[in-house]
Amino acid sequence: MKMTAENSAGKSEITMDDVKDLVKKKDDIEEQIKAYYDVLEDQGVGVEGVLVDAEGFPRADVNVYQIRTARHSISCLQNDHKSIMEEIEEALHKLHAREKAKREQDGAGDQEEAMMEEATEQQVALPPPFARVDAVTQGSPACGAGVRVGDEVIEFGSVNTENFQNLQNIASVVQHSEGKPLRVTVIRDGQKAQMSLTPQRWSGRGLLGCNIVPIQQ
After folding, report:
1. Mind listing the pLDDT tens digit for each residue in 5-52?
2. How crowded is residue 44: how many other Cβ atoms within 10 Å of its Cβ?
């Protein structure tokens, strides 16, 4: 295993062929370990089975030398397997890091442009909010639905940016929807978020447990 590491270290860069060679060596080791386990299974003793009889003499019903050789070989091969797995992991990490750096270098300009376009499209796609949540009471229906302070409302049941006139619109929808889920859509951290809010009686005031204020357009 050490020879593989030295060969890799001598090269300027790790290649996929290096990784494939390491994987092949790993597979070979696993095959050898399996073969030695088969030997132990054939002898009916396993890795921990006792090899002496009740009087302390080597058992006559098994090949003690073969079992001890197999156990020792398994122990050595398992150490080799651990080492080569570490080499594979390190080699893959180097490959991925190199590829990532190359992609970032090649696509940095394109990525920045794409992000700006996406942000612009998102701003265009989102309608202007007509109200803002400025208070949410713990344990209320609004709190349970996931409404947060600072949420900017663009849809509240049948009320939306196009038809909103005043807060009485929302109050009317709430009064006529007690016990029925309302779809509420808000802008949160620049992203559109939807939730289901059911107006209902609770230990506090009103049916929602949040305070909504209009946004002056």
Report:
1. 444 444 457 888 888 898 899 999 989 988 988 888 888 887 778 888
2. 10
For 136-199, give the DSSP string. Answer: E-TTSHHHHHT--TT-EEEEETTEETTT--SHHHHHHHHHTTTTS-EEEEEEETTEEEEEEE--
Q: What is the pTM of this model?
A: 0.44
**pLDDT tens for each residue of 100-159:** 888 877 766 566 666 655 554 454 467 889 999 999 999 999 999 999 999 999 999 999
Beta bridge partners of 159: 156
Task: Name beta bridge partners: 160.
Answer: 155
Inter-residue contact 25 to 87 (CB < 8 Å): no
CA dist., res. 54 & res. 79, Å (int): 33
| Dist. CA 86–CA 141, nearest whole Å | 53
Cα(192)–Cα(213) distance, rounded to whole angstroms?
19
Write the single-letter amino acid at 107. G
